[in-house]
Design goal:
By secondary structure, this protein is α+β, with helices and mostly antiparallel strands. The chain has nine helices and four strands, in the order H-H-H-E-E-H-H-H-H-E-E-H-H. Helix 1 crosses helix 3. It is globular, with a radius of gyration of 19 Å.
Length: 199
């Protein structure tokens, strides 16, 4: 079997982005060979057929080209959900200020955020990434690979610059190693049903 076919087969069945490192380890070849194959595979798919290779959430994924979106959506009929304003608020605070504690989120928002934080953890957009070395050792939260995937980001550096400086400088790191790569959510954030519940 050709290396390009092996890589394409694995990417085709993967439900979340895979890194070149992981593919090289899985197949048992040097990473530079996988990187070369990914470039060739991307060109091959781009020029032929309905699929494309995209770079997202720190990895690579095969997906359908945008022009097939309506047809695919019609077939899948996904249940669409919208994040409520309060959930988006909590998520934005975590994304820009991570690692951050629940108390710090409450202080920034001026209201309790435990419900919103729990909802975001359940949706796999936020995860516990450790404990702060302060009295009581409160839990620290950060965004996940699923967050990047859901919002079509390659890394946290692509977050909008809302503070007059690059977001990743405020965050301090690109992607904490504790953040797990998670499979994609069944529901998308695109269309839209309001979440119910208190803040």
């Amino acid at each position: 079997m050709r290396l390009i076919d092996k890589v394409e087969a694995v990417l085709f069945i993967a439900d979340s982005p895979l890194t070149a490192d992981y593919l090289a380890s899985l197949i048992g070849v040097p990473i530079f060979e996988v990187e070369d194959v990914l470039e060739r595979l991307g060109g091959k798919l781009q020029n032929n057929g309905p699929l494309q290779l995209i770079r997202i959430a720190g990895g690579f994924q095969v997906c359908t080209k945008p022009e097939y979106a309506d047809l695919v959506a019609q077939f899948l009929q996904p249940q669409k959900h919208k994040l409520s304003r309060s959930l988006l608020e909590v998520l934005a605070v975590v994304a820009y200020r991570q690692p951050i504690t629940m108390g710090e989120i409450d202080e920034i928002r001026g209201v309790q955020s435990d419900y919103g934080l729990r909802q975001l953890v359940e949706k796999r957009l936020v995860v516990e990434i450790g404990r702060k070395s302060s009295p009581g050792r409160p839990l620290l939260y950060g965004t996940t690979q699923q967050f990047l995937h859901t919002f079509n980001l390659q890394s946290l550096e692509e977050l909008p610059d809302i503070f007059g400086r690059k977001a990743f400088e405020a965050i301090g790191s690109d992607l904490p190693p504790e953040q797990p790569a998670l499979p994609t959510l069944e529901s998308e954030t695109g269309g839209l049903v309001e979440e119910e519940g208190a803040d």
